[in-house]
Amino acid sequence: MKRRDLIIIGAGPAGLSAAIEAAQYGLDVVVYDENALPGGQLFKQIHKFFGSKEHRARERGFRIGQQLLEEAGRAGVEVVLGAQVIGLYDGLIVQVVRGDRIERVRANAVVIATGASENMVPFPGWTLPGVIGAGAAQTMANLHGVRPGNDLLMVGCGNVGVVVAYQMLQAGCRVQAMIDASRAIGGYGVHAAKVARTGVPFFLGHTILQAEGDGKVESATIAQVDERWQPVPGTEKTFAVDTICLAVGLTPATQLSRMAGCTMVNLPGLGGLVPATAQNGATSVPGLYVAGDAGGIEEASSAMIRGRLAGLAAARRQGFADSQAAESRGQELHESLDRLRGGPFGERIRAAEELMHKALEKEAACQTA
Amino acid sequence: MNRLAEHPVLGTYERGRRVTFTFDGEPMEGFEGEPIAAALRAAGVLTHRYTAKNKEPRGVFCAIGRCTDCVMVVNGKPNVRTCVEPLCEGMAIRTQHGLGNGAVAEKEERP
């Protein structure tokens, strides 16, 4: 069996960052990604990022993706595309499908950076062609240059909802309405304002009742909800739309961390079931790390720092980075992550992290008892 | 036509060469290397498959290869995720019924 110092699963912002960081300390690093192109979801992020300059604010996601790929190339990272990891045994034996072949490779350390998948909400008609994830709409328009539809309803006014709605307008679609069951817009005000200024109506405190159409979406009916989230009769409104975009959250891709036997915790603030990790991404399985959305839903900016932390930790574990410089590098990354999570949008993450650390302490106490 | 000629942020799209393929035997055009699903959407095709039991139509949902709702029979091979499978010259793409290959149809015919 072939052996590598570090195998990273997923060539998105977290995985590439982990690879670049680790390769700098001399590790032999390979990144597997099942897609035909690397970069994860970065190349469809055509908006400018937030935060401060250290977090690449005011740069557009796809440019950051290009920079990461160039950096990975310079660092000597091997990125293998069309490589689907289907198994993780003893945490460190990676089973990968390439074309019609399956191979197994042993690693001294593994970073799972498999990202997340979009949530859905079930309602009558939700399986009709034309009901798609908001991220799917973004992929079709921004990556492939194909409009997902002409007249859209956006369900969810969090960051994904407002950002994608604006991008659909940029792509030449008509956004007929934005709805959210909550009475407040959850997404960044600046993105929501850009959508609102174009005249798109926002229906807060509303839910989708059903999608109608013969074999495909032809219209959608929404209604106001009361304080117990129940539709209020008589408040129904129907929109002629061919596409319903669901922006109702993301779920971490935990197939591999569960398969590897990582201790899991259910933290709604991080998107549901996630592997319990230390801040450097170390899971309960020795040598196995998780970075980015696969370890809890955040943003690409934090995924890049979490990737770097995991890459550094994987290097240190193998004795590659035991210098004073590496020590202070770790400190620097931790501080950078804390600053990124410092604002009001980081509150959810900070609260969830605290719960995770409590769960880990409790488990450690049980094991020693 | 659902293809964007130009984008206010991205400018023009880099596309592969123009290729022909068939959808349920009908000739269509797309660009080499783009996902099959993108070429089909541009050609106005929304239904990729019908479910095994209730014969309900399904199309693209996640567009990144996670949900498997968009699978079709490609060059005779069923269950191909069309949202991530690159389009090639001359591909024969067919609507999938059930699990493809007639496996489900046979099962259902049993009393």
Automatic annotation (TrEMBL), chain B:
<dbReference type="GO" id="GO:0051536">
    <property type="term" value="F:iron-sulfur cluster binding"/>
</dbReference>
<dbReference type="Pfam" id="PF13510">
    <property type="entry name" value="Fer2_4"/>
</dbReference>
<dbReference type="InterPro" id="IPR042204">
    <property type="entry name" value="2Fe-2S-bd_N"/>
</dbReference>
<protein>
    <submittedName>
        <fullName>(2Fe-2S)-binding protein</fullName>
    </submittedName>
</protein>
<keyword id="KW-0560">Oxidoreductase</keyword>
<dbReference type="GO" id="GO:0016491">
    <property type="term" value="F:oxidoreductase activity"/>
</dbReference>
<dbReference type="InterPro" id="IPR036010">
    <property type="entry name" value="2Fe-2S_ferredoxin-like_sf"/>
</dbReference>
